[in-house]
Predict the 3D structure of the following.
Amino acid sequence: MDRAAWALREPLIAGDKTPHQVTIDVSRPLEGKPTPLWWAAFLVSLATLAVGIAAITYQIRVGIGTWGLNRTIGWSFDITNFVFWVGIGHAGTLISAILFLLRQKWRTSVNRAAEAMTLFAVMCAGIFPVIHMGRPWLAFWVFPYPNFRGPLWVNFRSPLLWDVFAISTYFIISAVFWYVGLIPDLATLRDRFKSGVKQRFYSFFSLGWNGSLTVWNRYEAVYLILAAALATPLVLSVHSIVSFDFATSVIPGWHTTVFPPYFVAGAIFSGMSMVVTLMIIARQTMRLEDYLTHRHFDIMTKMILATSWMVAIAYATEFFIALYSGNEYERFVFLNRALGPMAWSYWIMVSCNILVPQIFWFRRLRRTLPVVFVATIFINVGMWFERFVIITTSLHRDFLPSSWASYAPTKIELATFAGSFGLFFTCFLLFCRFLPVIAMAEVKGVLGSHLKPRPVPVTDEPILEAAAARSANAGLDEAVIGGPDAVLLDLSPEETST
Amino acid sequence: MSDRQQVSIYPGEEEVLGAVVELRSAGFRILEVFAPYAVHGLERAAGLRRSRIGFVTVTAATIGSLAFYFFQDWVSAISWPVNIGGKPYSSAPAWIPVVFETGVLAAGLATVLALFVRSRLYPGKRARLIDPRITDDRFAVVLEIPDSGFDAATARKICARHGAESVEEGAAPEVGKKPQRPTTTSVEVRR
């Protein structure tokens, strides 16, 4: 990269777009007929969903005896899938809320799709505990409502009930946040389409939005409140509460205080990987190269690398505390995880979650999308196995050796899991077809951000000196044009190496 | 107030920002600005105050949390006390996760509802656009034309200097039918 580009920073959106061009580019996939590639993907997803629906119908008819669970292993595949999907659902709100709070402008290209991903992932997650209840038609019993059985209430001391509240709140708030973000874009589409069903649809849901600054002023305040005050603590609370399902029990391997931060870090790690996977697909199939640039993938893979280390520290802490605790059951569970009959799953987890992300230390690999794509899929496999290891290996060796058992999923369980992917991708493809994948109104606001002078803090001597030294070297007034290269999480200066 | 307005259209955020600042300092009264996206600083430049919608959030969060704190207490200690593992009937620490979630839920829904009600946004509402390109890339500034003393030449000059593509004066198109009813187009921009 030459000096001028370094001085001006790499633009967030490539191709010198005007706001009008953004409207055209983002609306294009919604206007024409779907491509053959879209149809192929959609039909495959729909077929997978159909397999899942068939499997679910069968297991509800026959009962969950069709699963591979036994008296020792009462939770396995289903709860693994539940935690896996909830975890994936976390990056959406992370990207939209926490990165908004940190003023990460690059999020604007990614947040819409990531929020949609959150909604669909939480829907997938919900399937498993509802079926596990055994009588899913009575699933509404989890809510405290006045009834003719006493009234008999739910047990508010149970972490499983906290989960009900956490997941439903998370779903509702994510949906609201997503919809509020969509309103200005729906208005843009309403005014672009002249007639037809789609126009009426956009018109109905854009709530008569007319771009008035008075409303924008309130809208911005609401968006900040939703992001900063509500969604950010919410996203941290949800996976903490999911981890309480395990941490508040007395099962060795589950009974540990590191679980809430460990689960949150893992959720962000897996969610970020899933976002990258989906964004690469969207970029290639919908011609969004200018909006999802290499810089976006560079930053996201750095976040994956960082969260990978958080997860690694959690693995190490857990293991160390188990060995150090002096509790022979804890010690046994962890040695059994790494060396016992299910050690293969433990080592898949370690290699996918700790070894694979280390390739992201290299800038060239961070920007080679096929490599990134494959790596993120490995990470999601690894994160699925993390939940499997936590749940199944902790259960399959009981306190009584006479209860020791093993576990293998049945075809019904595998079909249900596949079906959840079918649901996820069906929803995602419909979303790509009918709603703007890129948040137009937000992208338009950051188009020229790399050209604007950044305010240089006057009191901060070292930064000014460094900037002055840099500008002396480059022969350009970088202190004004580029400013101290101080975007959070994007700390590496785009050096002159490549 | 007069039902005559001047509408100027701008191609970009720098242009509209400059025009708004100068028009206001020249003493013109801006009724409303229309923008395709949120421009940093434009609200303050146009004289809008910070939204007070945060009070709705705080109130709803408080109500949602407290209501569920007492509901859980009532359910577990009064309505049907069940001895669960010898724990106290009123086990406050165990109520906290649900109290937090219901607080967030109430706050989120109330805040968005407040936005919709206050801005009169509802499903199926017909959008009254000052220009169809507003939701794409154009900006519009609406000036009030008082019954007397409107210096149209100066206003036009300022608009043109900041790159206005068109400047029109006329009867307020948005509020023409019901001039007595306040709408988003005609009021609420306070000096």
